Every structure is written in structure tokens, then in C-alpha cells.
């Protein structure tokens, strides 16, 4: 199974898009996304200095656009090619890239949403000087206790011994001066305490925009960075894009879901490197590629052929599958064959040690067959119910 992962803020470097502009169609597509975003993304991706692209309002549209245009080269026909992907995921702002690639929102909607996200988060960051620092290594309990002592929030729990602390610059300076034992503290190239309560004003802004946005259910499973759940519903994906701005990113749980899904290959789209590095330390026996330049495309195309697999789903199927969002024990009130199910209704729940997840039918229909028994263990993405899409 192939997974496409999309990086978040802090992964950008000056000039990283320069080699991609030599690929036919990329410059023109990037120019169009620039028009939608209201900024010159070609210039920012090729000429702007580090300080300029560190600005949240610039960095976020630049990262999303770069991921989307790179898929023009990764897949001959991105809309169809992405169907070869077993799942998609994004880290922080990268979830917007994944949502657009997965067909939940259009590229144009993604650029408007990320433009307003970047602006709102930049404004929230301007209220008080804040930032983020990566804490590498150390005992997990000691790291947590140290962050609490300094009044910091573990905004990203990335796995592979990496936790990103967020808070005021004074709090981060205190962390640098008194780090956890056997840990390194590395300041990140971001302009605010993202995924913390400091971003609450941005959530309010994005909630308003989300109400006016249309969505489609995802073409492929999307693994949420909030809790590692597998999500298909377009409205749920959009809701999570809004709420994640002020909530921690659990990339460790996202990678755990990759393992449970049986992932064999991972490609990280530009600006690539960060997520690939984390995956290499956690997901053994998985082929991992950071798509940093067009020089990597030959390997990427081979990986798509070897690890990608078409679902073979028809455009107008005679039945639809309802899947489990997480690993756990399934529980449901059994509905007999032929029972009508409304779109958006909860048909079962999946319980884990941490949470209980609702299993939602994204489409209405009639029950054809339950594929699990009440109380069975299930995995993320596992089909639990077969529905006929026509009611009556």
C-alpha cells in the first residue's frame, strides 16, 4: 500500500521550487494558484529569502501550492492517479494539501482556505510573541514534566523521540536554558505557537469560512493528524481542518495507523524531508522517499507502480462500503438486511483504550451485509458494512 504524505510549516527552504519549474505545466499551474492566493508563489518559491518565507501568511500557501503542483509530475493525471494511493495524510497545514489531493475540496478552495488560515494565524501570533521548538530525545515522562514546568504545550507529538513545544518566547528561552535531561532543543522556523490556545481566534475565523464551503467525500482514506483516525466524510475532514489549528498534532498516532493499514511505501511531496525522516525511524521495512526535486521522480514513478493499487471502484457502484475509522472493538445495534440507513447516520462505534469513534455512513442506502460481528476487533479502514446506494 502506498501513502502520500504532505509536510507542514517549517519544512520550506529558500529556492526549493526552482527545479520544479522546468517541468511543463508547473509554472503555469503555480501562477494560477498564485492568482487565487493573492501572492506571487513563483517568486516566493524561487527567490524569496528565509525570513520572507518564514512569515506564516506566506509559508502556508506556499507549502500547500508546492505539494499540489508536484503531483502534476508525480501522477500523469492527478485526479485519477491519486486513486492508486492507499491513503493520504498531512502534517498540520499539510492536511489541506492532502484534502485537496484526495478530492475533498478543490485546489482553488484549498488556496483560499490556506490563505485565510495563514492570515488568521499570523494575526493571532501578533498578539503576543510566541514560537515553537523541537525537543529531540529524552525520557518521554521527563519531557512532558519539563514542558509543564515551563508552561509550554506539546503542540506536535511526532514520534521517533520528537515533541514540539509551543508557547511564548520567554517560555521557550527558559526551555532552552533548562532542557529535559539527555534532550536537545531546536528552535523552529515558524512565527507562532501553532496548535495551542494561542490560535483560538484563527479557529473562529475559519469556522465561518467552512460553513460556506462545499465538500466531497474523499477519493481515498485520509488519516487525520488529530488522532490517527481514518476519515472519508468530506464534512468531517473540513471540520478537522478547522479545529486542528488550536489542537495538538499527533503524527505519532498517524504513523501508527500507517503501520496498522499495512503500508509498504511512503512518498512525501515537496517541501519534502521532515516527515520522511520521522517515518524512517519508526516504520521499518517501508520504502520511503522524500520527493525533493525532479531528480527523484524516476524512483517515485517506480514506487507508484510497485506500491500503488487501484481500488477498481466503479463510478456508479451497485453498493458502497462503510469503513472503520480506527483500530478497536466494534459495537453496533444490528440492522437487518434491507434496513434503510440515512446519509450521515452513525451505524456503529469503535472503542479504543483512549477514545470511542463513531462509524458514519457517508451515503444513504439499504443494508446489504454486515461484514463484522458485534464485538469484533477491527482495523482502521476495514469495511464493516455493505450498503446498496439506492433507497426504495
Automatic annotation (TrEMBL):
Keywords: Acyltransferase, Transferase. The lineage of its organism: Bacteria, Bacillati, Actinomycetota, Actinomycetes, Micrococcales. Its EC number is 2.3.1.39. GO terms for molecular function: [acyl-carrier-protein] S-malonyltransferase activity. GO terms for cellular component: cytosol. This is [acyl-carrier-protein] S-malonyltransferase. InterPro entries: Ac_transferase_dom_sf, Acyl_transferase_dom, Acyl_Trfase/lysoPLipase, Biotin_lipoyl, Mal-CoA-ACP_Trans/PKS_FabD, Malonyl_transacylase_ACP-bd, Single_hybrid_motif. One of its GO terms (biological process) is fatty acid biosynthetic process. Residues 5-357 form the Malonyl-CoA:ACP transacylase (MAT) domain. It catalyses: holo-[ACP] + malonyl-CoA = malonyl-[ACP] + CoA. Gene3D superfamilies: 2.40.50.100, Malonyl-CoA ACP transacylase, ACP-binding, Malonyl-Coenzyme A Acyl Carrier Protein, domain 2.
Amino acid at each position: 500500500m502506498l501513502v502520500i504524505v504532505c509536510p507542514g510549516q517549517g519544512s520550506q527552504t529558500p529556492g526549493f521550487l526552482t527545479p520544479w519549474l522546468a517541468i511543463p505545466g508547473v509554472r503555469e499551474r503555480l501562477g494560477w494558484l498564485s492568482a487565487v492566493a493573492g501572492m506571487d508563489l513563483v517568486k516566493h518559491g524561487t527567490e524569496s529569502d528565509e525570513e520572507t518565507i518564514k512569515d506564516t501568511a506566506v509559508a502556508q500557501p506556499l507549502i500547500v501550492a508546492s505539494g499540489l503542483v508536484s503531483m502534476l509530475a508525480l501522477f500523469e493525471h492527478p485526479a485519477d492517479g491519486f486513486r492508486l494511493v492507499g491513503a493520504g495524510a498531512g502534517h498540520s497545514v499539510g492536511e489541506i494539501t492532502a484534502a485537496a489531493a484526495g478530492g475533498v475540496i478543490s485546489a482553488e478552495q484549498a488556496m483560499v482556505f490556506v490563505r485565510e488560515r495563514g492570515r488568521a494565524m499570523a494575526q493571532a501570533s501578533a498578539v503576543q510573541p510566541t514560537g515553537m521548538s523541537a525537543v529531540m530525545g529524552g525520557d518521554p515522562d521527563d519531557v512532558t514534566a519539563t514542558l509543564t514546568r515551563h508552561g509550554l504545550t506539546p503542540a506536535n507529538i511526532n514520534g521517533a523521540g520528537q515533541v514540539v513545544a509551543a508557547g511564548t518566547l520567554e517560555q521557550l528561552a527558559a526551555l532552552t536554558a533548562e532542557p529535559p535531561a539527555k534532550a536537545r532543543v531546536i528552535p523552529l522556523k515558524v512565527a507562532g505557537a501553532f496548535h495551542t490556545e494561542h490560535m483560538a481566534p484563527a479557529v473562529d475565523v475559519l469556522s465561518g469560512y467552512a460553513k460556506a464551503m462545499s465538500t466531497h467525500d474523499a477519493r481515498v482514506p485520509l488519516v487525520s493528524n488529530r488522532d490517527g483516525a481514518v476519515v472519508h466524510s468530506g464534512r468531517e475532514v473540513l471540520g478537522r481542518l478547522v479545529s486542528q489549528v488550536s489542537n495538538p498534532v499527533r503524527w505519532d498516532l498517524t504513523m501508527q495507523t500507517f503501520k496498522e493499514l499495512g503500508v509498504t511505501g511512503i512518498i512525501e511531496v515537496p517541501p519534502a524531508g521532515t516527515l520522511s525522516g520521522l517515518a524512517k525511524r519508526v516504520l521499518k521495512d517501508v520504502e520511503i522517499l522524500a520527493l525533493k526535486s525532479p531528480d527523484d521522480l524516476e524512483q517515485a514513478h517506480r514506487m507508484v507502480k510497485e506500491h500503488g493499487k487501484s481500488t477498481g471502484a466503479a463510478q456508479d457502484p451497485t453498493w458502497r462500503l462503510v469503513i472503520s475509522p480506527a483500530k478497536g472493538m466494534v459495537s453496533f445495534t444490528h440492522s437487518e438486511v434491507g434496513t434503510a440507513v440515512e446519509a450521515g447516520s452513525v451505524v456503529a462505534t469503535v472503542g479504543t483504550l483512549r477514545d470511542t469513534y463513531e462509524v458514519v455512513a457517508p451515503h444513504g442506502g439499504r443494508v446489504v451485509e454486515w461484514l463484522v460481528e458485534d464485538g469484533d476487533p477491527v482495523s482502521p479502514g476495514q469495511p464493516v458494512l455493505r450498503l446498496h446506494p439506492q433507497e426504495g
